[in-house]
Amino acid sequence: MQFQNRICQKLFEEHAAVQALLQRIEQTIAKHRNDVPDAKDPLLAKLMTDLASELPGEVERHFAFEEAELFSFLATAGNVGIGNHLTYEHGVIRPIGLALVKLIGEARAQGFDAARWAEFRKLGQQLSMSLGPHAHKEDMALLPMLEDMMDAEKEAELYEKYVLQHA
Ligand SMILES: [Fe+2]
Ligand SMILES: [Fe+2]
After folding, report:
1. Residue 151 CA to ligand 1 centre (angstroms)
2. What per-residue confidence (pLDDT) applies to 142?
3. Measured between alpha carbons, how far is 140 from 131 in angstroms, rounded to an integer?
4. Residues 73-88: pLDDT tens digits?
């Protein structure tokens, strides 16, 4: 998929990046379905580092931008429903992410035992099942709608705010 609107394209790329991260969670969980891995296992350690940085970092920044700028833009243009729905989903996803990051902190300090690994698998699965479909839904519904409705001036303003100032 390719968007003319640079905000849409940027969010689309961020969705793809988060789907790749979720896929790594799925793979790791599947690989250690029947054992308890060492928290220092290089692939798992890298996954935990990325999750602990991305979830409170780029993922939260992405959510906050959608809520503050995009859903309000759509609401002003007469569509309140989609923003309310996607904000509700952010509210479901955020606490799962927070709990996962907290657990990662514990696992890094004390390693995994059976209970902690079961909790990691549960939260990882919940994150994947909530954030994956959410990002997909935005690709299919939100981004095309924004591309149709946003004029060049608004696009430039938001691109400055979200992409250029962050570079
Ligand atoms: Fe979102
Ligand atoms: Fe998004």
Report:
1. 21
2. 97
3. 14
4. 999 999 999 999 999 9
* Cα–Cα dist 80/12, whole Å: 21
Element (H, E) at 12: helix 6-31
Distance 78 CA to ligand 1 centre (A): 19
Q: Could you read off the pLDDT of 123-140 as tens digits, one per residue?
A: 999 999 999 999 999 999
Give the C-alpha separation, 86 to 66, whole Å. 9
Radius of gyration of the chain (CA): 18
What is the second-level CATH architecture of the domain 6-162?
A: Up-down Bundle (1.20)
Which ranges constitute the DSSP H helices of 55-151?
A: 60-65, 72-76, 81-110, 114-137, 143-149
Residue 139 CA to ligand 1 center (angstroms) comes to 10
Distance of CA 125 to the CA centre of its chain: 14
For the chain, the structural domain boundaries read 6-162
